[in-house]
Amino acid sequence: MAIRIEFDPEGIRAIANAIDAGALEGLDAAGDIIVADARERAPQATGQLVNSIQVTEQPTGSVLSGGATMSIGAGAPYATFVEFGTGIHGPKGTRIYPKTKKAMRWEGAGGYIFARSTAGMKAQPFMVPAVEENLDTIGEVVGDAIDNALDKVGR
């Protein structure tokens, strides 16, 4: 007695396509979760930073052939400085000095402020914590989307 087992290449392709489609759909939903959390965490002085946080690159790629990616970013020109800090509080850990003048000038609440150097600003992370705090949720959302896509092809 012999048992013959055959694989249906079309069925395997359908499963592979469902996994990819589900992963991309799940990443799209995960992006919305991260954007919402980052907007909640970001300092809201003027709203420019909060409004600039968005999905900057839609999910693309293939999980089965190299990986799927998406990008989320904050488009405000000062977003990196808020996230990582500046001066002694930033990545370089040194005071900030003017490059071409004797003093720096910026607008404060009561008018212009002048200084020969500044210690900088402490980091107020919003993007990295939004990703780190939601890793489990992101995994669940992507996993559920893949499961739903597989259910549609009958596994």
Description:
The chain is α+β, with helices and mostly antiparallel strands and 155 residues long. It folds into two domains: 105 residues, no CATH class; 37 residues, no CATH class. The protein is built from five helices and four strands. Strand 3 and strand 4 form a beta hairpin.
| Overall pLDDT confidence | 92
Cα distance spanning the termini: 29 Å
**What can be said about the biggest beta sheet?**
2 strands, antiparallel
- Which residue ranges are poorly predicted, with pLDDT under 50 across at least 5 consecutive positions? none
Number of helices: 5
Structural class: alpha+beta
Number of strands: 4
Q: Portion of residues in helices? A: 40-55%
Question: Topology, pairings included?
Answer:
Layout: H1 9-41, H2 48-52, E1 53-62, E2 67-74, H3 79-84, E3 104-108, E4 111-115, H4 127-132, H5 135-153
Antiparallel strand pairs: 1-2, 3-4
